[in-house]
């Protein structure tokens, strides 16, 4: 069996290099075809009718006029009379027609009568929604009452972080055909090429072997695109009804923003206590969150500083008449980081202590004391903490107040189950095939780098083929598990194939296969480059045979093999300026120090961190789902008033990725999620440091900042 | 004209294109649904995000805010019209690749179009001007750091008559 371990850092020729992504030109030139770009012969267009009420019962539905509308090829009702609808924008019916306009026009001809029922869409005030709250039961550690008695300092605060919408730029949807031979061809926008096949097969009751999935590119997912969803399944039914013509059905933006992804909220009253030395002794929290109608959303608090000796925690899940949550880049961690780090910053302010000192003094309450201590110090140095930090509220005269704040993160990120196949052809071409997907993280590129490294070739010698169920199964891209999974399976598949190639060429080189190595585009006798064959000449020895070998990453075995592991920490420090007259928060800078394992491509790895931080800036300062209490509808379900940061809003971003021998020995660890966690906490703490009061509720919009400054609850 | 479909001719990337459209159809939808020009993406569909950016008589505009019938008689340039020539990437495209100014890539063609128009008008931009000039486009993956660097690099690369 080949030695699968990664080559030593100093000996790597392709891995670890700052290569540009291989599909970069294709995407930046507009040539890349996303599934929403497909125009197939005979393709119909689908449209979705949604319910305008947050809670209602369908009394009657009449589609006869819609069915007669010119160009309409099918109408499917999914909320028949009697259906109790539990959130606004619940899907009611789907139409397929010759053109998009005909499909939309037909929707207007569907007559639905509703009995409107009472709804609840706000959860910020727990007292008002007690009847909708489900308590999880009290959790106690140590002796919180005694700890409170003995505390030298106690801080109490209320904190809230809202529901966000994923806002993928490519909406959810697919092109799908279900032909009379009972075969389903599916082109979805998905984070789960392999598993969506089985999900679709079950939903439409055809054998999984009859479903073929293909996706070249996905326009954003962030945790919201794993399932075929109701619209995907209904589009398949509409195709079948139309004799198998492909149906393209992607959600309209105003629907996408409401039902195709929500991050749960989190609210908490938190009491934190410390002894006179600043050692945290007590955590008490009464927290609640909504994850939509079915409840859910429970942040893991206290976060990172999990070993606070005395704790009392109560959490309630609040059911609201809002769309269900979907996984969000680091589910529940942003909320937990915000709640914990904000409470710690407030405790430090109460004690008139430098929060950096408080975070440092308590690192033994974390699972990675050494990591966080090192990172806090490094981040402070990069953020010029000593020079720029000041006690809370002591930001000098004038309306512009500058402040610094800290946020922390932790994540797993070990590789998922993944199988790769490596084909070496007699003409020397190499294919690496996986039923995986590239979310924009650079998955194609890292696969090529691993394959090239393993085969002694360059990245352009490798044809990476992903996004198709004809390739071996690979896990979903969630939990930052992709890079660990696909790099490990690619490593094994390519080395397995290489071993076969060695056997084929050993006679020609007059040495046993075990004495051969691949390097610099050659197969050579170890330590004797003079006895070699070029890659092409070596492959020519295959005659008419193609080598095809697989390799698998099996998560439970991976730690033993050392190719990938999980478990990282990171620290972010934000530097902001707040105008206390307008309430506008401006980003000066964010520093991110991030733990990582083996980094295959530092360029795309840094892009992940930049993107994660910018997403945090959006979440800290701009984004929120705004619900209308009276109608129960989302008011900002478009992109003008659902605010995302633009290029001017982000300040500067300084990154320190801890690439070194010690970290490298841990193997590959996913990086998409950890740096997306601590930024909101860091920015919130920086604002508090700048203006002297806590803005209790995120996002820190001008209204919320001004309310905090004037002592009003926001 | 209308309300039913009417035959019009659009001049896109220097070529006349005959197409039947309803007066209410946007240039973006006509390009994507009827002409298979899909580099411009439909994201917000309300003139906010810039993913559908095209050049109309050399000026950057949102394809979702223009009716196709109003685009008659105008020179429309899409990403497909300049991004590659003879397989060689335009300097702006190359700079986006070099600086990893893209992740999922769905907003990227819009950014490239906006960046080209910006550099055509401002061949020697400062860092601050780059931020202002690209303020009309949104990215959800957060690629702005790369975009800023890419536009500055493209400005350098486009000097010396390579401003195609």
Largest sheet of chain A: 7 strands, mixed
Q: What's the number of structural domains of chain B?
A: 2
Architecture of the largest domain in chain A, CATH level 2? 2-Layer Sandwich
Which pair of chains has the greatest number of interface residues, and how are they split between the two chains?
A-B, 57 and 59 residues
**Spans of at least 5 consecutive residues with low confidence of chain A:** none
Supply Rg of chain A: 28 Å
Question: What is the CATH superfamily label of the largest domain in chain A?
Answer: Aldehyde oxidase/xanthine dehydrogenase, molybdopterin binding domain
Q: How big a fraction of the residues of chain B is strand?
A: 15-25%
Radius of gyration of chain B over alpha carbons? 16 Å
Read across the widest sheet of chain B, the strand sequence of neighbours is 2-1-5-3-4
Name of the CATH class of the largest domain in chain A: Alpha Beta
CATH superfamily of the largest domain in chain B: [2Fe-2S]-binding domain
- Which spans of chain B of ≥5 residues are poorly predicted at pLDDT below 50? none
- Going by helix content, strand content and strand pairing, the class of chain A is alpha+beta
Described by the principal axes of the CA atoms, the overall outline of chain A is flat
User: Which class best fits the helix and strand makeup of chain B?
Assistant: alpha+beta
> Helix content range of the residues of chain B, please?
25-40%
And the CATH topology of the largest domain in chain A?
Answer: Aldehyde Oxidoreductase, domain 4
């Amino acid at each position: 069996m080949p030695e699968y371990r990664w080559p030593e850092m100093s000996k790597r020729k392709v891995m670890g290099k700052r290569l540009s992504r291989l599909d970069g030109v294709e995407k930046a030139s507009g040539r890349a075809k996303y599934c929403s770009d497909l125009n197939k012969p005979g393709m119909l267009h689908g449209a979705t009718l949604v319910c305008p009420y947050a809670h209602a019962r369908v009394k009657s539905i009449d589609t006869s006029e819609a069915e007669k509308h010119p160009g309409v090829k099918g109408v499917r009702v999914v909320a028949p009379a009697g259906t109790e609808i539990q959130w606004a924008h619940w899907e009611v019916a789907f139409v397929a027609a010759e053109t998009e306009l005909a499909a939309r026009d037909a929707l207007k001809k569907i007559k639905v009568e509703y009995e409107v029922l009472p709804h609840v869409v706000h959860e910020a005030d727990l007292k008002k929604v007690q009847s909708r709250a489900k308590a999880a039961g009290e959790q106690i550690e140590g002796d919180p009452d005694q700890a409170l008695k003995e505390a030298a300092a106690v801080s109490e605060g209320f904190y809230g972080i809202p529901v966000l919408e994923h806002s993928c730029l490519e909406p959810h949807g697919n092109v799908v055909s279900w032909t009379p031979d009972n075969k389903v061809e599916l082109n979805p926008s998905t984070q789960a090429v392999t598993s969506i096949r089985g999900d679709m097969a079950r939903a439409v009751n055809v054998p999984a072997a009859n479903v073929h999935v293909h996706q070249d590119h996905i326009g954003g997912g962030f945790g919201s695109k794993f399932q075929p969803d109701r619209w995907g399944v209904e589009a398949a039914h509409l195709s079948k009804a139309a004799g198998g013509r492909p149906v393209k059905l992607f959600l309209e933006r105003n629907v996408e923003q409401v039902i195709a992804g929500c991050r749960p909220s989190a609210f908490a009253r938190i009491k934190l206590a410390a002894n006179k030395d600043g050692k945290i002794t007590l955590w008490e929290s009464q927290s609640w969150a909504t994850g939509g109608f079915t409840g859910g959303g429970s942040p893991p608090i206290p976060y990172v500083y999990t070993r606070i000796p005395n704790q009392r925690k109560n959490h309630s899940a609040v059911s609201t008449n809002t769309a269900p949550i979907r996984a969000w880049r680091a589910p529940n961690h942003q909320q937990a980081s915000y709640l914990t780090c904000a409470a710690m910053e407030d405790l430090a302010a109460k004690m008139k202590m430098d929060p950096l000192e408080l975070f440092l003094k308590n690192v033994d309450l974390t699972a990675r004391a050494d990591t966080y201590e090192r990172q806090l110090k490094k981040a402070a140095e990069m953020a010029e903490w000593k020079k720029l930090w000041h006690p809370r509220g002591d930001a000098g005269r004038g309306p512009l107040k500058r402040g610094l704040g800290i946020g922390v993160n932790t994540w797993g990120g070990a590789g998922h189950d993944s199988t790769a196949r490596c084909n070496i052809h007699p003409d020397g071409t190499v294919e690496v095939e996986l039923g995986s997907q590239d979310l924009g993280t650079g998955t194609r590129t890292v696969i090529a780098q691993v394959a090239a490294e393993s085969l002694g070739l360059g990245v352009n010698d490798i044809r990476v083929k992903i996004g198709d169920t004809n390739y071996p199964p690979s896990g979903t891209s969630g939990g930052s598990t992709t890079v660990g999974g696909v790099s490990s399976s690619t490593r094994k598949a390519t080395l397995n194939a290489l071993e076969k190639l060695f056997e084929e060429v050993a006679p020609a080189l007059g040495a046993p296969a075990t004495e051969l190595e691949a390097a610099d585009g050659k197969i050579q006798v170890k330590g004797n480059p003079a006895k070699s064959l070029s890659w092409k000449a070596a492959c020519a020895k295959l005659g008419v045979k193609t080598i095809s070998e697989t390799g698998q990453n099996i998560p439970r075995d991976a730690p033993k093999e050392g190719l990938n592991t999980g478990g990282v920490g990171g620290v972010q420090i934000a530097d902001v300026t707040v105008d206390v007259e307008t309430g506008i928060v401006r980003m000066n800078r964010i520093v991110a120090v991030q733990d990582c394992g083996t980094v295959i491509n530092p360029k795309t790895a840094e892009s992940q961190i930049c993107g994660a931080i910018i997403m945090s800036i959006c979440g800290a300062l701009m984004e929120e789902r705004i619900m209308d209490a009276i109608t129960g509808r989302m008011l900002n379900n478009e992109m003008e008033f659902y605010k995302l940061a633009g290029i001017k809003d982000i300040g500067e971003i300084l990154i320190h990725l801890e690439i070194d021998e010690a970290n490298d020995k841990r193997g590959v660890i996913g990086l998409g999620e950890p740096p997306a966690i601590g930024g909101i906490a860091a920015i919130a703490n920086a604002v508090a440091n700048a203006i002297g009061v806590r803005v209790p509720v995120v996002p820190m919009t001008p209204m919320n900042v001004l309310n905090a400054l004037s002592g009003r609850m926001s | 004209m209308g309300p039913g479909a009417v035959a019009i001719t659009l001049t896109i990337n220097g070529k006349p294109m005959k197409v039947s459209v309803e007066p209410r159809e946007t240039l973006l939808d006509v390009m994507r649904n009827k002409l298979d020009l899909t580099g411009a993406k439909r994201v917000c569909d309300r003139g906010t995000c810039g993913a559908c950016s095209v050049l109309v008589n050399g000026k950057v505009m949102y394809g979702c805010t223009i009716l196709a019938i109003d685009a008659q008689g105008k020179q429309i340039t899409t990403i497909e019209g300049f991004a590659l020539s003879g397989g060689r990437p335009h300097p702006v495209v190359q700079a986006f690749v070099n600086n990893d100014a893209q992740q999922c890539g769905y907003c990227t063609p819009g950014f490239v179009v906006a960046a080209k128009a910006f550099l055509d008008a401002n061949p020697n931009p400062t860092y601050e001007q780059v931020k202002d000039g690209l303020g009309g486009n949104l990215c959800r993956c957060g690629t702005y750091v790369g975009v800023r660097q890419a536009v500055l690099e493209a400005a350098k690369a486009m000097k010396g008559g390579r401003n195609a």
